[in-house]
Structure formats: C-alpha cells, structure tokens
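User: I'm writing a tutorial on reading structure tokens. Could you give me a worked example: one chain, its sequence, then its tokens, then a sentence or two explaining what the tokens reveal?
Assistant: Sure. Here is the example chain.
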Amino acid sequence: MRSLQYDVVVIGGGPAGLAAALKAREKAEKVAVLERNDELGGILNQCIHSGFGLHVFKEELTGPEYAQRYVDMVADTDIACYLDTMVIDVTADKQVIAMSPEGMIVFEAAAVVLAMGCRERTRGQIRIPGTRPAGVFTAGLAQRYMNLENFRPGNRVVILGSGDIGLIMARRLTLEGIKVAGVYEVMPYANGLLRNIKNCLDDFGIPLHLSTTVTKIIGQKRLQAVEVSAVDENLKPIPGTEEVIPCDTLLLSVGLIPENELSKQAGVELNPVTNGPRVDNTLETSVPGIFACGNVLHVHDLVDQVTKEAEDAGAYAAEYVIKHAGQAADKDEAGQGLVEASDRSGKEDAGIPVKAEGLVRYTVPSTICLDKAGSARIKFRVGRPVESGRLLIKSGDKVLFDRKKAMKYVPSIMEQINLTAKLLDGITEPVTVTVEEV
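And here are its predicted structure tokens:
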C-alpha cells in the first residue's frame, strides 16, 4: 500500500472536480484529482446536445466540448490525475483511501474537495408495481447507451418524469426515429427548464401529461405496455382514470440524488432536503478541511453554475491549507509537533444558521461564518411554482435583502443572491430566506 501526500485532493473528475482542482492549484502546491472512470469529464461526455458554456465561455458548446476545455486546462498544469481510481473511504482526518490499477493508495490530504456528482433515482426507489421485464431504464442510462455505446434502447418509448434529462432524451429518441408516446409527470407542473420543454417537446409535437403517473408495468421478458393514471392533489392515483399505453421501453426521469456515501463515511453532516452536505459560506462541510461542490452538494440546473461553485470550493480549500499550515508552523515554533498542531486546528465557530422559510425549500449554505469569509452567496430553490412572489432575507430585525417587486419562481430554477460583507457586518441572529406569494 502506497501513501501519497497532497495539499488538496479532489474526489471526482467531472466538471465540478476539474474546476475545483484548477482553482485550488492557483494557490496550493500539490493538487490531485481522483476519478473512477478511465477518462476525465464525468457525465458531460455523454451529453452530446448543445447548450453548455453560455455563462462561463459566452458561447454554446456540447457537453463533450465543455468538458474537453477543462481537461485541456488541467493537462497544461502539474495537477496529478489518477484515473480508474475508485475511492472507497474518506476519514475525518482527511485520509482518502482508493483502489487503482497499481493497488491500494492512501492519499494524505491537507484539504479534500468532494465532487462526486449525483445518481439517478431508480424504479425500485419510486416503487412502480408490476413485473420486471427488460426495457426499463433511467433516462441517463439510455442516454449513455445511445450516445456512447451506439445502442438503440427500443422502438416505442414512454418517459416518466419531466426532468431535464428526460426532456432531452425525448428529443434525442425522436431524432433517431424512435416514437415517444408521451412524457408523464406526477406533479401539476413540469420539473425541467422551460427552454427544454419548448425545444425538446413542443417543437417535436411530443405530449406532456401533467398530474399523471405510471401505476403499473406490463410485460414478461420485454416491456409490452405501461398503465398510467391521473393523480389527485395528494399525488394519489385516481381510480377509474387508468389507461394502458403500448410501449417496449420506459425511461425514468424522476430525480437525482447526490452521491454522498463517502461523505457519510467521513462524518459529514447531510441536509435532509438536498441529501447533500451542510456547508457554510466557504463551502466547508461540518468536518474541518472537507469541502463540497457541484451536484454532490445539491442538484444544479446548469453546468456553468456547477463550475462557478466548484471554483469557489477549490479556492477556499487552498486558503484552508495555507492558513492551517501557517498555524501549524507557528505552533511548531512553540514546541508542538506539526502533525499534532495540524490535528488540533478546527473551525473557528459554528457560524450563523441560514434557514429556509415560506415557500423556500432549501438554501445553500446552511451557515454563514463571518470569520472565514465576510460575504456570502445565498442559493435557494422554491418547493412549488410561485406566479408572483416576494423575496425577503433577514437577520433578526435587520433586512439584508428585500426584492419588493414580485417575481415568478419555479422549482426548476435555482436562485442566488450575493450578500456583501457590508450587509452582513455585525449580524448575530439566524438568517432567514423567505418567498411569500403576493
């Protein structure tokens, strides 16, 4: 078993991991990226549609093009990239244990950035009754089969869920000559971006059925049909509304779950709403020196947002290394060992809580630590569409932000507000983020 030492170890070589590593390398000397696949780029490698990079590069790129730009930038640095390397454990003292083609490696890190991305929710997790035939896929798996493996998933497809991957796959299947019978969404509103509903469904005449879900899978060796039913306001199927839709393929686009098994092993506290780590305004988790960004933190709408958040995480991780290395050196001069001094360095305080109220479903960050960063970028998402809502951010009686003009808010779009150091100066009470209908 080999042991290697790095200032910053980034787990995940997708868009978040690469952006975090590049930013960390601007200040940290030794940076490593650990990727379980045999190539960098993550999920973007199978996203051959355009629409990426409009915010970061000010031009429209496909997923592989966007990923390749970051792969090339990393290649121009001395960042160490370990491919085919599966991380199996992360400890609270920032030991990252991984299996690689060379055997087991223990990475001793001064700081760790979690950038493992997310996975799709499966049929078993949403409990669709019926038989277990071939032909039931998650939308992302079908996307990989078509775009990377050149496999045809079926001939007549039903899509459950209006998430962006499902919407994009509806168009992709149609362009390949595969019939999409319809997209069925259990909620009374679509969950994907408006542009994807327009470009992927409306432009191709693909019907979207709201307040409707799949209630039965029919078929033995191969899927033959699905039963769909309308649902009531409690999302329960309404008896008598059943309809059988003939199909040989069902794609599930029913949500994404952050990949946080490693976070749990490290003792990182998770947010029960997002299933991602609770972080402060420097994206540091509850475990000192472990940071999180991208879809492992919370599911994003755009990869451009992932990149910008990951750059923040990488920068703060590098600052953490520099700060605590300096503290360790100071303590060593006083007669303490470097390792002992480093182990005793921790968070300065618990921070000021950030709470979601009203129609806000969750916020990132969960706390604000003013002694680590004076400003804070508050991100939040509403729990349901709000046609006319007012946003108010307060700390006690102090109003930090008041958007008096009513706006439309939808769950598919993550909002963000930058609170400057001047606004946050002197606050001591919890920060509340509220959207109320007006």
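What the tokens reveal: The first strand starts at residue 2 and ends at 11. Residues 140 and 165 are 7 Å apart (CA to CA).
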